[in-house]
Write a structure and sequence with these properties.
Length: about 325
């Protein structure tokens, strides 16, 4: 069963709600075919069929319900999750979803986590690489990690589009450069804080091959011994507790490096729909097949690891 773990869907009503609460970045998500109209869904299903993708797991980031105002955050999170639950109900053979949480409000996030997983049937929860300037090693996230660990559930991590909170990553490079840097930094925060080892039953799934992690792990192993000596285990061991989607915009050498460093058994198919659509969407699959990987690795990445990881039977 071929599952795309990295795909987005936003209704215009949901984006309008975010905008009404002060999110000024919704325009980048509109008009891309990622809506919930019949026309958009029909076109989406045609692309999935062409690429041989059976199922997509939907997530809202970076259009996440994260607001300093708790009432707004809770309302937006509930709306997002209700919309996803409804579309999964309508198309159970096409979609599953991760629950969005009203971060940074911990108690409200735990309440919505319970509703999302127990009542709405979500596969896990999703969070951005930072939340309104807070890193993922912020203590506010610990109770959520603990609950996901207790449940043996999934945390899907996706860039926030915040330029890693750096003024040097400006609007001309927010997504081309900033997003993989956000992946790298957030996962490193988690590793140094010992989150993967302290919550071994929580499955972390990260975007974009983990950013630069495949290129940096040997350096991190050596440098953390003196720079972050309280890191509980080598980064190269910590990443073996995580999974990573294959979104790399068709760059074969990046995928081969990730297989060599992270392991083919840690990689799962992602497309980043709608930001990769049309031929780029199909290439999200074909580049895995053409990259010169062993047949067993290709099969793991495209067809066998994700169903087991997500608990989805064909």
């Amino acid at each position: 069963m071929r599952i795309d773990v990295h795909a987005h869907l936003w209704s215009e009503a949901y984006l309008d709600l975010l905008e009404s609460y002060g999110n000024t970045a919704t325009a980048v998500h509109r008009g891309l075919g990622a809506g919930s109209t019949d026309k958009e869904l029909d076109a989406r299903f045609a692309q999935m069929a062409k690429a041989g993708i059976d199922l997509q797991v939907l997530s809202t980031p970076p259009a996440s319900p994260h607001f300093e105002n708790e009432t707004n955050a809770v309302d937006a999170a509930r709306r997002a999750n209700d919309e996803y639950a409804e579309i999964v109900r309508r198309y159970p053979d096409k979609f599953r979803a991760y629950a969005s949480l009203p971060f940074p409000h911990t108690d409200a996030a735990l309440t919505e986590l319970t509703r999302g997983l127990d009542e709405l049937g979500m596969l896990g929860v999703t969070v951005t690489t930072s939340v309104l300037g807070r890193a993922l090693d912020d203590p506010a996230f610990e109770p959520v990690f603990a609950e996901l660990d207790r449940r043996g559930s999934i945390l899907y991590v996706h860039p926030a589009g915040a330029g890693a909170e750096s003024s040097l990553i400006n609007s001309t490079m927010t997504w081309s450069v900033g997003a993989p840097i956000e992946d790298t930094i957030s996962l490193t925060h988690l590793i140094i804080a010992g989150v993967p080892s302290r919550y071994p039953n929580m499955t972390i799934v990260a975007s974009h091959l983990g950013g630069a992690l495949p290129m940096l792990l040997k350096r991190m192993d050596r440098q953390t011994t003196w720079e972050a000596p309280n890191t509980p285990e080598k980064p190269s061991l910590a990443v073996r507790r995580m999974y990573f989607d294959t979104v790399a915009h068709g760059l074969d050498p990046a995928l081969r490096a990730a297989v060599d460093v992270l392991g083919a058994d840690r990689l799962v198919l992602g497309t980043d729909f709608p930001y990769q659509s049309g031929e780029a969407f199909t290439e999200a699959v074909t580049y895995v097949q053409r990259a010169g990987l062993p047949a067993e690795a290709v099969n793991q990445i495209l067809d066998t690891t994700a169903p087991k990881l997500l608990g989805i039977a064909e």
